[in-house]
Amino acid sequence: MATEIKLPRLGQGMESGTIVKWLKAEGDPVEKGEPLYELDTDKVTQEVEADASGVLLKIAIAEGEVEVGKTIAVIGKEGEAVPEEAPAPAEKPKQAREPARATTPPREDEPDIASTAAEPSRDGGRIKASPLARRIARERGVELAQIQGTGPDGRIVAEDVERAAAAAPTAVAAPAPVAAEIERVPLTSLRKTIARRLTEAWQAPAFQISMSADMSRALAIRARLVELAAGGTKPTISDLLTKVCAAALMRHRAVNATFTGDAIDLHPSANVGIAVASERGLVVPVIHGCERLSIQEIAAARADVVERARGGKLQSADLEDGTFTISNLGMYGVEQFVAVLNPPQAAILAVGAVEDRAAPRDGAVVVRPMMSMTLTCDHRSLDGAVAADFLRTVKTFLEEPGLAL
Fold first, then answer.
1. How many Å apart are CA 131 and CA 145, to the nearest integer?
2. Mind telling me the catalytic residues?
3. How far apart are CA 241 and CA 261, in angstroms?
4. How far is Cα of residue 142 from the mean position of the Cα atoms in its chain?
5. Quick one: angle between helices 237-251 and 216-227, nearest 10?
6. How would you classify the pairing of strands 324-328 and 347-361?
7. How large is the angle between the packed helices 384-399 and 237-251, nearest 10 degrees?
8. Helix (H) and strand (E) counts for the chain?
9. Pairwise CA distance, residues 374 & 196, whole Å
10. What is the pLDDT of residues 65-103, one digit of tens each?
């Protein structure tokens, strides 16, 4: 019996998702657990696996936003009949429909009975085209019969019509614009989430403290670790910093905390989030249990999540259960900055570039590789003295890395 594939709930609070593209076409064989389509949620774009094995009999929704639980495809045996959809409501008189069609343009995934029946194909059948493609064709004066569709089963989509309209010769050249037009970029699900979470962060009573660490010994240890990497991932200063912060978090558990509204949860393990800039926006994948990992293991885990973050391949689990975040802009030459809280975490550490600076040592002024650190804290979870004690420990561990072991 055919299996209806419904949009899954991939995280707490998820109510809908946006289908980006299908990795299989109708008629393709599918194995259970095999990636079936890409889904954009409010956290990440990820591949979703098939719930059953068989043949992809039907793609009910090719792309766009879909509510959780809605049927998006059907998988069954080859040649098996596809379950019929619920009957559409009775058709209203034409004069009652026209105003609605004029004020509410159809989307790609919505049926348009009037336009579907309006245009015959060359062989006397009906042209397969989305309602949006038909509307654009009418507005641009493009003949659908002259367009080769690129959608499923040769269906003409809006992009096909736009390309045809752009390629069509014009009798009179359009006048040059007197001013550049504003380009409007719609918010993605991830960008909406970033906006919401940053707004939440600014509502928290936050404070910042800063210190600088002499990185002479940390740089020497990092250089030695690179020599010992033996073809593996080369550890970075960020990897060493992650290990040092994890050790400090175990000594100052009040910082390894999340604020729940009516309680403060102190976590037994340091799950450190690494802020990563991607084409889709800022994401914070989490490396779990950093206090138990070696610097080389942290480096390998960091390289993996960063690569997948920039390739849009993170899973929901990669972004969950973080207890502390590090944001490093040193590679951009930033000397010092303030990072915004990552709720509900109690603190986030902003790290600048390692720079040669004059520093007093034993009554003399010497040049040392120094790194600025700024800790942003949620005052509802942390007091200044506790935060300062934690940052002092991080500074001590960076200047004497052996103390963190």
1. 15
2. 379, 383
3. 30
4. 37
5. 120
6. parallel
7. 130
8. 9, 18
9. 24
10. 888 888 999 998 888 878 766 443 334 434 434 443 444
CA 281 to chain centre: 7
pLDDT (mean) for 254-274: 94
Name the β-bridge partners of 214.
370
- Kindly report the pTM of this predicted structure: 0.61
pLDDT at position 81, please? 79
Secondary structure class of 243 (helix, strand, coil): helix
Say if residue 175's pLDDT is above 80: no
Report yes or no: 275 and 305 within 8 Å, Cβ to Cβ: no
Q: Give the tens place of pLDDT for each residue, 266-281.
A: 999 999 999 998 777 7
Query: What is the reported pLDDT for 22?
Result: 92
Least confident range of 98-107, 178-187, 328-337: 98-107
What distance in Å separates the CA atoms of residue 376 and residue 208, rounded to the nearest whole number?
4
Q: Tokens 């699900």 — which residue? A: 189
Please name the amino acid found at residue 233.
T
Q: 3-class DSSP state for residue 391?
A: helix
